From TrEMBL, chain A:
First and last residue of the signal peptide: 1-25
Pfam families cross-referenced by the UniProt entry: ABC_tran, Hydrolase_4, PepX_C
Name used for this protein in its record: ABC-2 type transport system ATP-binding protein
UniProtKB keywords: ATP-binding, Membrane, Nucleotide-binding, Signal, Transmembrane, Transmembrane helix, Transport
Transmembrane feature ranges: 581-603
Gene3D superfamilies: alpha/beta hydrolase, Galactose-binding domain-like, P-loop containing nucleotide triphosphate hydrolases
Alphabetical list of InterPro entries matching this protein: AAA+_ATPase (IPR003593), AB_hydrolase_fold (IPR029058), ABC_transporter-like_ATP-bd (IPR003439), ABC_transporter-like_CS (IPR017871), Galactose-bd-like_sf (IPR008979), Hydrolase_4 (IPR022742), P-loop_NTPase (IPR027417), Xaa-Pro_dipept_C (IPR013736)
Family: Belongs to the ABC transporter superfamily.
Residue ranges of domain ABC transporter in the record: 624-852
The organism's place on the tree of life at top rank: Bacteria
Single GO MF annotation: ATP hydrolysis activity
TrEMBL record, chain B:
One Pfam family per UniProt: ABC2_membrane_2
Membrane spanning residue stretches: 20-40, 60-83, 114-142, 162-184, 191-212, 245-264
Record key words, sorted: Membrane, Transmembrane, Transmembrane helix
Molecular function GO labels: ABC-type transporter activity
This protein's name: ABC-2 type transport system permease protein
PANTHER family linked: INTEGRAL MEMBRANE PROTEIN-RELATED, MEMBRANE PROTEIN
GO cellular component, one term: plasma membrane
Amino acid sequence: MPALPALLLGLVPLTLTAVAVPAAAADRVVETVLSVRGTPEPDGAPVTLDATLLTTDPSVPRPAIVLAHGLGGTKADSLPTARTLARDGYAVLVYTARGFGASGGLVHLDDPAYEGRDAVAMVDEAAERPEVEKTGTGVSADPVLGFAGASYGGAVALEVAALDRRVDAVVPAFTWADLTSALVPQSRVAGGPGSLADVTPAGGTGVLKAAWAALLFTGTAAGTGEGPGEQATPSVCGRFAADVCRAYVEAARSGTAGDDLLALARRSSPDLSRVTAPTLMIQGEDDTLFGLDQADRVMRGLPPTTPAATAWVPGGHDASIAVDDQLDRVTAWFDRYLKGDAAAPVQPGLSVTVPQTTLVGTGGGADDSGAAPRVLTADAYPGRGGAAPGLRTVALDGGVQTVVNPAGARPGALTNLPGSGAAGAAAAVAGYPLAVLPGQAATFTSAPVGRPFDLVGSGRVRVDVTSSGTEAVLFAGVWDLGPDDPQTHRPTSTVLPGRAVAPVRLTGLTPGRSTTVEVALPAVSHQVPVGHRLRLVLATTDSAYAGPLAPAIYRVALAEPSLTLPALGALTASGGSRLDVPLPLVVGVALVVLAALVGLVLLRRARRSFGAAPERADLADVPLVVEGLEKTYADGLKAVDGVTFTAERGQVVGLLGPNGAGKTTTLRMVVGLMRPDAGAVWVEGRGVHGGADVLASVGALIEGPGFLPHLSGRANLEAYWQATGRPLEEAHLEEVLAIADLGTSVERRVRGYSQGMRQRLGIAQAMLGLPSLLLLDEPTNGLDPPQITAMRRVLADYAAAGRTVLVSSHLLAEVEQSCDHVVVMARGRVLLSEATSTLTGDGRRRLEEAFLDLVGTGPAGGGT
Amino acid sequence: MTALPLRAEVRRQLSRRRTLVVFAVLVALPLVLVAAFALGRSDDPTTARGFVDLAQDSGANLVVFALFASTGFLLVVVVALFAGDPVPSEASWSSLRYLLTAPVRRERLLRQKLVAAALFSGAAFVFLPAWTLLVGGLAYGWGPYVGPTGDQLGYPLVLARLGLVVLYLALSLGVVGAFAFFLGTLTDAPLAAVGGAVVLWIVCAILDQITALGGLRQGLPGHFAFAWADALAPTVDYSAMAQGALWSVGYAVVLVAAAVWRFLRKDVTS
């Protein structure tokens, strides 16, 4: 058994969770509030940025990490993460972006000229701080510095990496690489996917993500007020810069992205080709604002020489943006590229967490351990710097369908409630009837999948669209439908992975003429369970987008009857096979097992010292010597008190005494069933203890026979003999059975035996193997007179063959008639030990009187 | 010492009615399940596919269902019976003293009883899934195992995983057997030893419900009883199983050591 855990440990990589070391947490973080000069506004107004530097020991220069917050936040949002990083040995600089909180200036929506330059100012600040580690000295001092941020701050991280070569590592999260495709997505593509989530638009402006744009702009404007530190009052523009405000208002009013907005979005997208700092891009799988395709853009937009990795993780703008959940990754990235820690965990080029949907809940795993999520990884991001990933297809079924875009785009399909978090998720559960409106959606369905199917990345589909006008807008989504309910014939579950749809705007169409278009479907990470189907839905409306208000009719059909998906052959499922065991448990069990092994060895050694050779050579010829036995029971009764006697070869010795004299207790000690408190028993000169080998030459019947009730008499004797481990020929089974004289009953189960039959079988069992010393405790119990007479003869014959018989009895006559020697016991003591042949005349009377006297006064009680 | 060869001990136990009854119950279990599912099928169909529906997917699924249904109690009783009953049974028949004077050394007697108990328990652990797989395969076909997440395990992988499950079950129920065995060296009443171990299991299951105990619950026998479900995922998370096995093995070693220590010093008066 002890070898088994070791075997398991060898099979899988072992991580031992040691007890948490609170030492690091005890470090006090020193927080210094700073005021950093930012880029002036276009009108020359100076801007100061509110910042804080955190480190546990200001006297030690440390690698720096700058943290940028999300839209509408302040540096306070970054403080918890900053403290954790500070305790990990970093000098952390957090700051409030211009236009928010206590910082001055206006919001330019991550314009490199403003927010980007501000971030560079932070790098300048870090370069001058003594708390920050630097390479080089004086003017050429280059801080060892990383930049991280989520959402609005994530884009700044990418921007500063593009602007400033002094940045040594960046971790953008839940953010954009191309703001145009995030705000005005166009999923019409061409030429097949170049990577896992390739949504490179081909042809024309996309569809305004109206709900998200409104939420971001209006929400932020209302929350920021008109100046730093002022009470927030409702206003149209808030602290947004005038050009940003104007571009948004125009787009919101018209429902289309104007040139101003497009120009602004283009400007606010980082120039990825200039980024040389190692980049870890973390993107959320629940994010209809900045989808997984944005992370794909980063991976393909970075120069091939820039070390880069991306992680698709649960969360995002539709759920929650929890950078702390990803802190292990972030720290590993900075440890590797800032501290130069080669032992930091390597981040795979791609890591995708695939959420597991269950049919029946957890179904009885270890409750609080939680199932590890399935994670797919690839060393290199599929499609980065190399060949495009392979393709696989899923056949879709569905003929030509006609759908209508209603006037005013109402009612609009409800696939998602942007910014509503959990409420949106709840809506999505019941969502199919709300999301796929009759007459407004064409559907194409696959057969049920036979194996769990990973829907990872962005799929492609080619459709033929005929419009009643020159333009067409469609929203494409892929649903996961559960098996149909046999009663309602509706799917038991409907899931729109990521709650994402891909808008396609087709322009320049000829009314009535079909156009084939390739559509990039939303990039998702989802597992389709067995028996579920995929359904492509092409809807004319989506309430989260500003679709065309003019009514139109489209005829939609599949150009190719299949859905094309990136092949996941390069991705390996990892994170599954895991062995995480608390170290103290392993050590504790190992110690227990070790202690048990030591105990076993000691026991063996102790047992081995009992040799086969006589320990008392002088007694080697004496069948039984009992010397000064004493035994006191737990209740204080001294049952045996200094019993000494000897049985010689060829004798039948009678152990005579009233009930309670200590006869049986003595016999139990003779065969080692009990440990005497004092004294010793020698059989042929060898000491007797529990299970001593010398007991093989002792046969015993003590306090009645004991048999397996479900076996026959013969089988019992055979089973007993088998237990001795000696060969059957030595048993003399037939001779012994003849003595028992059970006739045909010997083949019956012992359960049905009379007391006399059991007794005879018990005597027979004691005689098995014809032991040289036979101990019989009250052997005549339950025997009738003829059997008693026969038994006497048997015992006499047995002793006559040179063996020894010790018979205990409470009947004087019994002992007198069958024994050569008598040992009289009472109250645990030996009163008399004499040959019966010498017990004549005076001696005979003495015995009789003594015995009667004893019987009359002996303690009442059982035969112990 | 060759006293009490294993063959002799196995024969002593094999001929007993309780052994036969245990295996009869194990034989009946999958048949009863299949019959119950067949009877229950006429009921109105449920909207969601539950665990019971999954059980009828394939033979392998029926095995998992049967193991799930029996881990909590049936297998516990079986192990407690096989491990807790042999020593006090001999004592209650008065045959223990004759074995010891045969002579069989006490540590030898315990060892052989324990090995035989392990053999019988192991046989039950192997027999139940193997027989259920046969019954389920004939009833529901030989398709792959389909997990609650829709993941599938095909042949022969599912056989290897079921082997892992059986191995883990054997290790994690070792604590029950060891406790029953320990009780058996204290008492002459077989029922006390077997019942005591089952009661321990139930009490621990109740304590395990008290979440306020926090991390202490991990040390409760039975806390990781169902961790074998982890072995049926596409990739195996060995953490819970390793912890369950370690706790069980740790307890078992201590309990068996206590049993040996106690029995070697015991005055056999039965």
